[in-house]
Amino acid sequence: MLRFVLTRLSQMLVSLLVITFIVFSLSHLTGSPIDSLLPDDATPQQIASLTEHLGLDRPYYVQYLTFLQNAAVGDFGDSTKWKGSTAAEVVLERLPATLQLGGLAVLISVVAAIPMGVMSAVRRGSIFDRMAGVVALLGQSLPAFWLGIVLMWIFAVILGWFPTSGYGGLTYMILPAVGMAWFQIAALTRLTRSAMLEVLDTEYVKLARIKGVNERQVIWKHAFRNAAIVPITYFGVLAGSLLTGSVVMETVFAWPGTGLLAIDAIRGRDFPVVQSVVLFFAVFYLLANFLVDVLYAIIDPRIRYG
Amino acid sequence: MARKLKFLEHLPFLPIAVLMIVLIVPAFFADMIAPHDPYKAYLRNRMEPPLFFGGTTEFILGTDRLGRDILSRIMHGARYALIISLAGIVLGAIVGTLLGLIAGYMRGHIEALIMRVVDITFALPSILLALALASVSGPSFELVIFVVIFVIWGFFARQVRAETLILRELDFVARARVAGASDFRILYRYILPNIVNTIVVLATLQIGVVIVLEATLSFLGIGIPRPVPAWGLLVADGRQLIVSSWWISFFPGMAILLTVLSVNMLGDSMRDWLDPKLRRV
Fold this sequence. Notes:
The complex is a heterodimer of chains A (306) and B (281). Chain A is mainly α and 306 residues long. In chain A, 78% of the residues lie in helices and 0% in strands. Chain B has 281 residues and is mainly α. Chain B has helices spanning 2-9, 13-33, 70-106, 108-123, 126-137, 141-167, 171-178, 183-219, 231-239, 247-274. The two termini of chain B are 34 Å apart. The chains are: A mainly alpha (306), B mainly alpha (281).
């Protein structure tokens, strides 16, 4: 088990190094920061002293290592758009809003998708099953940003049940969270359904039924507990689509989280903030996947030797 | 003649009809069939509602905030959806296929390296790359195509490698080698023709993903630059006006939805016809 954890941990670190290297290299593609920091009539001495001060005269790999060192303690420099704060502060300030929305979205998708997947497997071929199939197909084809706008139009503008956009309590969160959850629901329902179909076909489930265990217990206690392993592995992928979802839905609903922050920062050419959001998202995503892998290995020992 | 009809049997009618109407015909003939200039602002007809919702036949799907005809803009936008998705997929397929062939045929360290890179690209959400790139270059066509290639090449590399691994061990490849064929000739004449079906099916299955990706990036302002009437940008135009003028966002989004739905259905039937084993992928 320890070996498995260490392998995954090292793979995660390699991915993280690749991302930091990409982000670091991009920051150098923008051109020398000297040009934007000094006025046009700066003397060669001023340019030379600032270059030395920022360490731009040092070898590329040394600069990269310095960048890593600073990144490790969350230092990405000062925000150029939100004056007076560091980039990391700006990101941390927006983080709770994103976590609230993401948390609600995960909750909605699990609560909706698991029963739906189980029921369509149990009543395979029924109208319910076919409707779940349509939801899954639509989930693949609907553009998320448009779904968000249509939800806003129907439920906020026409029906007036929820506010159209902005930051606030639960009523403000429902529409964007449902928008984010939609795609998770589509994928999670399909996965749960196929996993359940497989398990329902096994000998021990048949035996439980022959023994006269009531159907409810067979489904939830005998079958679902074993089928649940498959959806759990999906949570790693889910973390990735949550990131995309938060950028899209926060933009649609003007929800002041880190996703909207990233878009605002790009529009305002605030590179330190974009950098910190990207690296923050990357760490979150890799960590989520690492935890899922470990959890999976704990639940299903076969994985450790796979 | 009979053979040609047999070929048609495999193509589902409805998705193809929808694709022709929404995507392909407008993409080629927008200049001729669009009722208005997509950039022309009819300032007296701003935010005119669509036909049957209080509008006129002049602007069937209504107009936007500047009085531009939505139908004409959607038709011209089809061109960008088609060009970007085709360019991105063709380039992604070429990169992926080449590296997949090399990995599967050469084996050894090269294979390990290529497949490790595939793993890493799969491990990175595309939105991160798009955000990082956009912050440097601003929205641009090159950026969208680059992100598309990054997202899809791994699928091709993985599948092509797996099939090359099997094909290279078969007798006809061994005979070609005995006959003195070079590595390049073996890959090009003997292995590639056997995986073309797979590549075509994978490409078709990816079109929907790519169109949504392009539209999403454009919507967020990190994709195709304005003032091009790309579908994602058209939806973004109506986002602030949803309370008063729903049609500005609604119809361009419908165009995306119909296109992607049809492409996905087409992809499924192409797969069942040309390469049923991909069902598991």
